[in-house]
Amino acid sequence: MELMTPSGGTIFWTVVTFILLVLILGKVAWRPILQMLDEREKRIKESLDQAEKTRIAAQKTMEEQKQIIEAARKEAQEILAKTRKTAEATKDEIVTKAGKEADQLLVKAKRDIELSRDKAMEEIREIAVTLSISATQKLIGKTLNKKEHEALVANSLKSLRGIN
Amino acid sequence: MIQEIAEKVGEHQGAEHVAEHGEAGADFIIHHILAQPLIKLPTIFGVDFTITNHVLMMWIAAAILIVTFGLAFRRRPAVPSGLANALEGLVVYLRDDIILPNLGHEAKAYAPYLLTAFFFVLLCNLLGLVPYGATATGNIAVTGALAICTFMMVQIAGIRKHGLLGYLKHFCPPGMPFLLRFILVPVELISMVTKHFALAIRLFANMIAGHITILALMSLIFFFKNWLITPFPLAIILFSSLLEILIALIQAYVFTILSAVFIGASIAEEH
């Protein structure tokens, strides 16, 4: 049957055509395409590796930054705590000192007041003695000696104090 | 095609015998499947070098492949687009799913052969579905020649890898009882030939079967001579044609993967 009888000529032409096609396409298509694919795959792999490296580096940097920030925060907190303590101490000192000074001032003021009062009392006494002398002289025309007057004034002052 | 069959049927007008109509249909089918001589060339040493339509279709397929790939990959941008992208997808698929798994480290040497085989067989198959086209791969001489090429590649690959003696030792594995060799060596040799023979027959039969189906269905229209019957064969022809596109792809794939497997087995290390 003709259908199943291979023709030698067609076999020849097929083999020739096919071998030539393999050679031509190998040069025109397959070699460039496969080379291109290899190059691209290599490039993609390199890019991925690079990206991975960059990612790791970035992570490391971030970790470092985190540590630095953590350390800074800790330090700040320490400084704050220390400052607070110092301030507290200073405050206490100042308050204590101020209190002491105020006490001292109070004591001094009291003493001054006492002194001034004593002095004033002395002056009043002297004036009163002088006045009473002159008044008595005018009344009785007689001069009492100073000693008697002073005794009188002291008596009256004593009674004054008793009223007070 | 339809005019021809009408003429054939016309010749039998008057004689209304079903058998004769059937014969006309068969002639028409055979006429469309067989190679038609286009340019008569002399016969040398009993080989007829006549250029048939199948040879012409092969050349057209080869020309289309060279032009398409040449144009698509003339410039090589880093990221291909359009046609180059589509072709590259096919090439990557063939490389990763057929060539590399079967050939491994030797893939580079045999990739051009297998890639060419795939695209050439695919295009020959598909050109048979184009109007006025003919199926070169529906010719036993063409598929036989392609199988011979694969056979030669297998032998070359084996000898290149193991040396002539090392390759011949493959047919006679060591550790085999002496008497068993007289059976197994011929079996190995026969298997080497039959698997390539099957390669040729498989492609040929698959391509021819689809065409015979379509042509037979078409003949039904003229057999019944009734317009009312036409939609049914046409519907089945449409379905068969779509099936043929699928078969064209599958057979190109099968031819390529089997070639890869045979070459891979030939270069495989002794177990």
Question: Can you describe this structure?
Answer:
The complex is a heterodimer of chains A (164) and B (271). Chain A is mainly α and 164 residues long. Chain A is built from two helices and no strands. Chain A has helices at residues 8-140, 146-163. Chain A is rod-shaped, with a radius of gyration of 61 Å. Chain A starts with 7 loop residues before the first helix and ends with a helix. By secondary structure, chain B is mainly alpha-helical. Chain B has one domain. The longest helix of chain B is centred in the C-terminal third of the chain and has 47 residues, at 178-224. Chain A binds chain B through residues 2-15, 17-22, 24-26, 28-34, 36-37, 40, 43, and chain B through 30, 33-35, 41, 46-52, 54-55, 58-59, 62, 65-66, 69-70, 73, 76, 78, 87-88, 91-92, 95, 108, 111-113, 115-117, 119-120, 136, 139-142, 144-146, 148-149, 208.
| Largest sheet: number of strands, sense, barrel closure of chain A | none
Strand fraction of chain A: under 5%
- The N- to C-terminal Cα distance of chain B equals 56 Å
Q: Helicity level of chain A, as a percent range?
A: over 70%
Strand/helix succession of chain A: HH
Low-confidence stretches of chain A: none
Which descriptors apply to this entry?
heterodimer, A: 164 residues, mainly alpha, B: mainly alpha, two-stranded antiparallel ribbon, globular
In terms of topology, how is this protein built?
The complex is a heterodimer of chains A (164) and B (271).
Chain A: H1 8-140, H2 146-163
Chain B: H1 2-11, H2 18-33, E1 37-39, E2 43-44, E3 47-48, E4 51-52, H3 53-72, H4 82-103, H5 107-127, H6 140-169, H7 178-224, H8 231-267
Antiparallel strand pairs in B: 1-4, 2-3
Helix pairs in contact in B: 1-2, 1-7, 2-7, 3-5, 4-5, 4-8, 5-8, 6-7, 6-8, 7-8
Describe what is shown at a glance.
The complex is a heterodimer of chains A (164) and B (271). Chain A has 164 residues and is mainly α. Chain A is built from two helices and no strands.
